Amino acid sequence: MGSIFLDLIQVLIAGFGQGSIYALMALGLTLIYRSTTTLNFAQGALFMLGAFLTLELIMAGVPYLLAIPLALIILAVLGLTIDKLAFQPLLKKDHVTQVFATVAISFIIVGAVRFVTVDQRGLPALLGGKGYLEVSGAIINTQYLMMIASLIVVGLLLAYFFQRTRIGLVIRACTDNLRGADLVGINVKRVFAIMWGLGAVLAGLAGILAAPTLLVSPDVGNTPLVIGLVAMALGGFGSIPGAVIGGLLMGLLEQFANFYVSTQLGAVAGFLVVLVLLIVRPNGIMGFRGIRLQVSR
Fold first, then answer.
1. Is there a smaller number of Cβ atoms within 10 Å at the N or the C end of the chain?
2. What is the dihedral of CA 92, 95, 237, 254, to 10 degrees?
3. What is the pTM of this model?
């Protein structure tokens, strides 16, 4: 009985840890979708770029704890650049055009990284040491604890930002009624830029946190992107709490299926559940109905 309980604890922590990565990806996708109603298919490339930039900075001699914020700053600037060069000129275009622009950006980023390196490299654990803790017989990967803690911190910061700061309240007004915000003089384009920057930072943070548990390569962001999109559908497109719930559920489903059934099923367990859920509840757990509005500015 004790062994069963220890196994359950380990699977739960692994599930919540992996789910935290998916939740961060879904959060970044949701912030951009909620404000622009555009799906950012470059999010997987940004996930990879966060890990890649951190690795390159460390190899250049930058201390680990300094390399992370530097990489995130670079990603924030990149997110603003993507908005300025690829999204703003397409504001009056249809959804398909905007989505294909993000796909093109993804290929450009991945191609640039592949041009620089083809190696698969690992990032050291953030907490260093052995990389695991033994608690009452349970072996716990410290990186999973970092993932969970990071999601909690990000969630609290975002909650404070959107509920307590002036710019956060302005962004909420835009996401709730884009046309109304535009009519009362709010700079909607600036709001879009902020959300693209935040989305890029969240993707990069997810990549940095996940890197110690996988090998960093140019294509490492493909699976997190797909699962992040599935987590959005599971939680409800446009719902920020739903993105977190969907990401955590995807991580738990994956780890429970891996441990109790088979590793082959683990990769598809979440997708099967989402398929069934969308048949029963098409809008997801906390579905949000977004409306596409053109901006006159």
1. N
2. -140
3. 0.90
Query: What whole-number distance in Å separates Cα of residue 196 and Cα of residue 201?
Result: 9
260-277 pLDDT per residue, tens = 887 777 778 778 877 888
**∠ at Cα 111 (106, 112), nearest 5°?**
105
Question: Which residue's structure tokens are 């891996």?
Answer: 258
Place of tokens 């390569």: 217
Residue at token pair 């390196």: 117
